[in-house]
Design brief:
Layout (H helix, E strand, L loop, with lengths): L1 H15 L5 H5 L15 H7 L4 H23 L5 H7 L2 H6 L12 H6 L4 E2 L5 H8 L8 H9 L6 E5 L5 E6 L2 H4 E3 L7 E2 L1 E3 L8 H5 L6 H7 L3 H11 L3 E2 L3 H4 L12 E2 L20 H12 L5 E3 L10 H6 L3 E3 L9 H10 L12 H12 L20 E2 L19 E2 L23 H11 L6 H13 L1
Parallel strand pairs: 1-5
Antiparallel strand pairs: 2-3, 4-6, 7-8, 9-10, 11-12
Helix pairs in contact: 4-17, 15-17, 18-20, 19-20
Bound molecules: heme C (2 copies).
One heme C binds next to strand 12, helix 19 and helix 20.
């Protein structure tokens, strides 16, 4: 009764306005609670009221922002070649001595083994065919240079001189926040923007650099120590606070990096990063100017706190003013693009549907998950931060943030970043371990079946 009393007037009012109700009836009728969340496709909206010229300006603006943002996300180095090439000389280690660099060079095999990805769409047919026919020597660093020349290494730009020699290199957002679908082969495929690259061993890549002086100077330690820190993170992790507070290891001696989170499904989410440093554009400026070492402006007086951020206080990164500013003018489109990337849907068959439905009821009911992970955002609308004790973990990483809190992690697309584990540092290696943690913490008294139902639900998000 309830269902028809709500559904019928909506359908009637839509048809009464002269609009075809086809979009509505053709798809299976949504559940009562979903009605308001269902948005008609654009064509339906159009036939209801054609776009005005002002509407069209907005549509064109949005399209332009997405295209520009995509370009920035994938290809903009923000001038970071001055750091990665100029200061660290990393390009020389990639090229190897035979190709005008130093050392043995980085072969495609090595590059793929440290998690770098190749964009198959960027490969010219000739190179693609050679790869298919296994005619490319994947042990030869010259082949890595060929891949860089056609701009196919995701998140890395090689800068070549007229003679074809690698002169420098810079990195992009896509380095850590994109992967590929492996459609051509392992590590080679079409780009998946926003996905966390949990294969990428940032520390191993950086430690190849012939000159680590920028790090030894900043942190006031020797090269061996810098290498030990870089070697501690492992795949899928990076420490975006190290150059602010100088905390290279946790007090218990474990590594201090955090997992690379996805950069999709962020629209509607208030605070970002594991510890809620700020909004998406806040963090984008932070990363572009202070982590990727592009040239730009970044301001946050909270980082001038000498006690919490001694290294930032020394380097002055709380008031970063690089000239020329290659970051600020890109923040709007970059923000827009990230908000436009949806969380990917879990593949059919990757979870048990019936069990996940039972899990959904538990999630919003007895297991109390939805008190913090509010569907469909799966984080709190509003101030989405919690003290370490509220989620039953130590304060180490929270205390590296101006908030001293942990942000309720948005869970949509969770299935796509299971590698490396869960929570900011991957301390829970599996989803059952996460559920076990909450079961103890919140004294939920879940049965074994309830626990596995919750796991199936998490896999479905
Ligand atoms: C070297 C790897 C790396 C690069 C390059 C990088 N990020 Fe990140 N990103 C991370 C890590 C690690 C975190 C988590 C930081 C934390 O919580 O302290 C993060 C966090 C984020 C978040 C927060 C996500 C969330 O769930 O709230 C966004 C958004 C983001 N990055 C966007 C970008 C953009 C845009 C760029 C390019 C300007 C970029 N990142 C470059 C590693 C990287
Ligand atoms: C008090 C608020 C709160 C409650 C209740 C809560 N969570 Fe969380 N959840 C968080 C916070 C905060 C984090 C981030 C922890 C971190 O960054 O280390 C998180 C992280 C997670 C993660 C890891 C996400 C990732 O990307 O690694 C999963 C999975 C998760 N929660 C599932 C659940 C489930 C299932 C329940 C119910 C049994 C639940 N949560 C209850 C606040 C909460």
């Amino acid at each position: 009764m309830l269902k028809s009393s709500i559904v019928v007037p909506v359908v009637m009012s839509v048809t009464a306005l002269g609009m075809s109700a086809c979009w509505y009836l053709a798809s299976s009728l949504p559940q009562v609670g979903e009605l308001s969340a269902q948005t008609p496709p654009r064509s339906a909206g159009r036939s209801l009221s054609p776009l005005s010229s002002a509407d069209r300006v907005i549509e064109q603006h949005a399209q332009g922002m997405i295209e520009r943002g995509r370009q920035i996300f994938r290809f903009d180095t923000f001038g970071s070649e001055a750091f990665w090439g100029g200061a660290l000389q990393l390009h020389k280690a990639i090229a190897g001595e035979k190709n005008g660099g130093v050392g043995g060079g980085v072969s495609p095999k090595t590059a793929l083994s440290v998690g770098l990805k190749v964009d198959v769409d960027a490969l010219p047919d000739s190179l693609r065919n050679q790869l298919k026919a296994k005619e490319v020597d994947l042990d030869d660093p010259a082949a890595t240079l060929a891949l860089l020349k056609v701009n196919s290494v995701v998140g890395v730009t090689g800068i070549f001189d007229a003679g074809g020699h690698l002169q420098s290199m810079g990195i992009q957002c896509a380095f850590c926040h994109s992967t590929v679908d492996d459609s051509f082969g392992p590590g080679i495929g079409r780009r998946l923007d926003g996905w966390a690259n949990r294969d990428l061993n940032v520390g191993a890549i950086v430690s190849l650099a012939p000159n680590l002086k920028p790090f030894t100077d900043l942190l006031g330690v020797d090269v061996a120590t810098v290498k030990k820190v870089l070697g501690s993170w492992g795949p899928g992790r990076f420490d975006a606070e190290l150059d602010k507070d100088g905390k290279a290891f946790r007090p218990d001696g474990k590594q201090a990096g955090t997992l690379i989170p996805p950069a999709f499904g962020l629209a509607g989410v208030n605070l970002h990063t594991w510890t809620g440093f700020g909004s998406v554009p806040y963090w984008n400026a932070y990363v572009a100017a202070t982590e990727m070492h592009g040239t730009g402006t970044f301001f946050d007086s909270r980082l001038a706190d000498r006690a919490q951020f001694p290294v930032a206080a020394k380097s002055g990164s709380s008031h970063t003013r690089g000239a020329p500013d290659r970051v600020t003018s890109k923040l709007a489109a970059l923000h827009f693009y990230q908000l436009a990337i949806p969380a990917p849907k879990a593949p059919a068959g990757s979870f048990d549907k019936i069990a996940s439905e039972r899990g959904s009821a538990l999630f919003s009911g007895r297991a109390r998950c939805a008190t913090c992970h509010v569907p469909p955002l799966f984080t709190e609308p509003g101030n989405n931060l919690h003290s370490p004790s509220e989620i039953g973990i130590d304060a180490f990483q929270a205390d590296r943030s101006p908030t001293h809190m942990y942000r309720t992690a948005p869970l949509a697309g969770l299935w796509s970043h299971q590698k490396g584990g869960f929570y900011h540092d991957g301390r829970f290696s599996t989803l059952p371990a996460v559920i076990e943690h909450y079961n103890d913490l919140l004294k939920l008294g879940l049965t074994d079946r309830e626990k596995s139902d919750l796991v199936e639900y998490l896999k479905s998000l």
